[in-house]
Design goal:
The chain is an alpha/beta fold. The protein has helices spanning 67-84, 97-104, 114-123, 138-150, 158-161, and strands at residues 2-4, 25-34, 39-47, 53-62, 90-94, 128-131. The chain has 5 helices and 6 strands, in the order ββββαβααβαα. Helix 1 packs parallel to helix 3.
């Protein structure tokens, strides 16, 4: 597994979304979390090298204890879906730097995230996992927030992904 964390290697993290290389799929994920109700919404947008949205999906989770757990749940669910859909050359881009670091370090220091990070490591050892600023993850973030607020699928959000200038 390769990882890119802002400020840790020569990889300069884009502020705006950047297309992946040809034949590579980029998957952006994000979670929105409500501490009071212990629930989370998740969003995923899958795009090709031209930036074309191939899939837009949302997830809703109950009994979530922490925002980082929400981020990990969304990433694990999305990884499973993307592999199931048959994609193999994948870059996963998330705005939860702790998840990226936990995937690369000894997870015992991230006790709450351990089971999620172990799944991420075991299931998909050959992908890129990249930390991005939330600005580069705008569509996935919008889908996550919408899902948390309305507890609906993101099927009606296709128009959001096609707005000019929207990342």
């Amino acid at each position: 597994m390769r990882s890119h964390c802002s400020g840790q290697n020569s990889y300069e993290n884009p502020v705006r979304w950047q297309a992946p290389p040809m034949d590579v799929i980029k998957v952006n994920t994000d979670a929105s979390f409500c501490k009071v109700l212990c629930k989370a919404g998740g969003g995923m947008v899958l795009r090709d090298h031209r930036g074309k949205v191939l899939r837009l999906t949302s997830f809703f989770f109950l009994r979530v204890l922490d925002s980082l757990v929400a981020e990990g749940l969304v990433l694990r669910k999305v990884m499973d879906q993307v592999i199931h859909w048959g994609y193999s050359l994948i870059v996963f881009e998330i705005d939860a730097e702790v998840i990226v670091k936990a995937a690369m370090l000894d997870v015992s220091s991230f006790l709450l995230l351990s089971p999620l990070v172990e799944d991420i490591r075991e299931w998909h050892p050959d992908f890129d996992l990249v930390y991005t600023l939330i600005v580069g993850n705008e569509i996935a973030h919008t889908v996550a927030v919408y899902t948390l607020q309305d507890k609906r699928s993101a099927s009606g959000l296709d128009s959001v992904a096609k707005r000019p200038g929207f990342q």
